Amino acid sequence: MSSDDEGVVMRALEEWVFSHPHKDRPFLIIMGRSFTPVQYWNEVRENEQFRTKLFRFLEEQAERAGERPVDMIYRAVGANRR
Amino acid sequence: MRKAGVLVVATRYDAGSHYTYQWARALQEELARMDHTCIPLDAADLCRAGSSFADAINCVQYVVFYGHGLTDEWTALPVGSSGSTTPLVNSANASLLGGRRVFAGCCHSLVQLGQAYAAAFPHGEYIGYSKEFAFEAANHEFFRDVVNNAVIQFVKGASRQAVVAMLQNAWEGLRDAFGGGGILQHRPNAFEASQDADDNSKHVGFAP
Q1: Could you tell me the residue range of the domain that residue A40 belongs to?
Q2: What is this model's ipTM?
Q3: Chain-chain contact of A75 with B134 (C-beta, under 8 angstroms)
C-alpha cells in the first residue's frame, strides 16, 4: 500500500473509532486479550507490526473484492451511523 | 446415525470466554437435539474436582474445549496470586485425554499440547489452532456457527483432515462475506471480522 493510501486508511480509521457507538466496549476478541475501538486505534497508531498486518490484510482483501483498501473502513463508518 | 458421547468443557471468566461459553451451550443444545450424549462442564469447577474430568472422559468419545489456551495448556483459571494460570490439561498430563477425538477451540492448542497428544496417541485425532484464535464481538454468532458446525461434522464421523479443510473453507467464506461485495459487508466492524476470519483460516490445523 502506498503511503498516500495508508494515510487515507488512517484517517478513515480515526473516523470509524470516533463515530463508534460502543467505543469503550471490547469488540476484537483475541482469546486472552481484547480491544475496545479506542484501544484498537491506539494499537494501530503505536504498534507498527499490528498496523502493518492490518494494512496488508486490507490490501489483499481489496484486491480479492476489486475495491480500494479504504472502502472496508468506510463501510464500517457507515455501519456506526445506522 | 451413530450416537456419540461428547464432553463439552468451557470457561467463562472474561469478555472472550463469556462469548465462547455461549457457543458451548449452543453446541450442547444442538448435539442433544441430534440425540448425542453431551456432558457440559465448566473448566473452573473441574480443575478443583479431582478425578471428575477423567471420569467424564471415560464416558465419551469426543472432548471439546472452548476457552483460553497457551502453547502448553488449556486454561481453566486466569492468572492468580501465584502469577500463573491454572491449566485444565497441559503436555505433562495430556494422557488424561485418553486418546479421545479432541476439538480444542482455543489459542495455541496445536503447539506443545497438540504435539504431546500426538506423541501419546499416534492414532488419535486432535483439531486446534497453531496461533491465536480471534473473533469480532458484534458478529460473534457467525464465528460461533463456523466453529460449532465443524464440531458437529467431527462428531458425525468426519476425519480431522476433512474437518480442518471444511474449517479453512468456512473461515475464508466468512472473510469474503464480510469483505467488499459480501453479504455481511455492511455489518458493524466488518473489516475486523473479515481479518479475524482470515487469520483463523491460516491457523487451524490438526495433530498427529
Answers
A1: 3-81
A2: 0.97
A3: no
